[in-house]
Amino acid sequence: xxxxxxxxxxxxxxxxxxxxxxxxxxxxxxxxxxxxxxxxxxxxxxxxxxxxxxxxxxxxxxxxxxxxxxxxxxxxxxxxxxxxxxxxxxxxxxxxxxxxxxxxxxxxxxxxxxxxxxxxxxxxxxxxxxxxxxxxxxxxxxxxxxxxxxxxxxxxxxxxxxxxxxxxxxxxxxxxxxxxxxxxxxxxxxxxxxxxxxxxxxxxxxxxxxxxxxxxxxxxxxxxxxxxxxxxxxxxxxxxxxxxxxxxxxxxxxxxxxxxxxxxxxxxxxxxxxxxxxxxxxxxxxxxxxxxxxxxxxxxxxxxxxxxxxxxxxxxxxxxxxxxxxxxxxxxxxxxxxxxxxxxxxx
Length: 347
Known about the structure:
About 45% of the residues lie in helices and about 15% in strands.
């Protein structure tokens, strides 16, 4: 161990103890709160997660409560956070832990549904004090700058894992890991880090070389792919037909208007034929409304067609619901917008 790393640990944890954000999951250090917060924070900003976390814990205060809940209610409470497989995996893992208890080591936690290396390490170190490093996007960026690593952080994972092990404060693994994450979130931010107020700037090799704004090198950006859906609006009085999506894939397990992917340039006749293949007969000459949403990896367009159902065998689970039922169902934000468009168009 070098004096540099020892001093860095002390400076970082001292800064964290003075400047850490007051976040609801930091007010209770139990494994359930840590687990829930870390899953919610995957691909989601803190400001978005806080109200969801508080509502979720109010409704499911213990793992046993979550395990006993219906999946639809869990998905409904998750609606708007995206990446709905996280909610399904939370529910499955809660069922396992309600029976067998909460694992205390990262290697055991990884056996639970939806828990990868990062989340398992976070729970083990924050809740149980296991000396394992946490390596998320913020920590990877901090390490790349501390060590002046030239490759993009996503191409440097084996090296970063080794360096994370070296930097880890094994006497204080939880506070150190949280401090590294907080540093990346507040100070060592992408693009233009706040080096003037950084508690470890004097230990940072990128800063010493004047490379802090250039490192880590930018990742290759993934272009968002367009996804065009024709959605059938089937009415029965003031009720609308919704079907449940398959568990895997986009919006897995959520409820939606019956839909089929179509070519954006397809003529109306081809769209109607596509709807017929899923048991729907389009009655309108054109869509009654269109909804557009930008997802993480997709540009989603949903054309809403007034339809009648000609077959009930094209989907595995369907039901007619009223607007009052929506809060009890797992609906994506995009589908909620689509349903609002339908109700607005019919008033």
